[in-house]
Model the fold of this input.
Amino acid sequence: MEVAKRFIIGVDKLVPRPDIALEVLTMAHDSDGSVSAMAQKIEQDPNLTANMLRMANSSYFGHMKKISSIRDIIVRLGNDSVKLLAITSASSGLLNTPQKAYGLEPYSLWNHSLATALLAAILARYADYEDNFSVYTAGLLHDIGKVVLNKPLQEESVNKKINNKFSNIVEYEKFVLGTDHAKVGMALLKTWGLPESIILPIGYHHTLDGEEAGLLQSKILYLANFLIESIGIRSANPEKYMFKVEDFLEQNQRLPDVPNFPDNMEVIINEFYDQFNSAAVVH
Ligand SMILES: [Fe+2]
Ligand SMILES: [Fe+2]
Done:
C-alpha cells in the first residue's frame, strides 16, 4: 500500500468527515448547481452558517447594513460571493487546530491557508486561468495533510530521536514518516471525493517535477505557497522570511513559470495585501 494512504486509515477519528462542509464544497464547484439548494444545505449546519455570516459582515465585503441570514448573503452579495464564502467557511472548520509538530499555533495554519488561497486566485486571474474557484479552494486546503500528520510526526520524531538537520519540512516528513503532507492531503481529499482540479495541485505544491506539477493550477499553487512563505505568513520565524520584491528578484530559486506573474509581480503582491488585510481577521 502507498505510504500516504496508510495515514488516511482511521483518519475519520482524527478529522471527523465533515459531511455538510464537503457537500457544500462540491455544490459550490458545480457550475450548474443551484445556489438556493446550497443555501439550504449550509443552514443544516449551525457552525457553518454562523461562520459564513461572520465573514459576510467583515470589512472584506464592506457592507454597512448587517447581513443576518444566508438568504441575505445571496441577495446582497450575489452568487459568486456566496460560493466564495461557502468554500471559505467550509474549509476553515477543517484547519483550526494547533499543529505542534509544525510549530504552528491555532489559527496560523488557517491564516497561511487563507493567504495562499487569496494570492492563488489573483495569480490565476493574471494568468487567465479560468477555474478560479478550484484554485482558491486548493489554496485553502493545500496543507490539510499537516492536520493528519501532526500526531504521527510528533510521535515518530520522539521515537527516532532525530538530530539531523533538514532544509525544509517536506524532507523532514519524508525522513520521519516516508511520505509528506502534500501527498497525504491529496489522498485524504480523494477519499472525501473532491475533484481532481483541486486535489492534483495540492499533491504537487512542493515539487516542480512530474506531469501533474506542470499543470497551470499546480504551478499557481506552488508559486502562491512559496510567496506566502517568503512573506512570512505562517507564524514560525516570520522575521526570517520578510519579503521584499527586490530580494525576490535576486534569488536564484527555481520557480514555476506562471504567465504574467514576472511583469506584474509588484501589483499582484499589493493587491494581495489589500485583500488579506481585510479578510485575515475573520476566523
Ligand atoms: Fe505545504
Ligand atoms: Fe503551505
User: Anything to note?
Assistant: The first helix runs from residue 3 to 6.
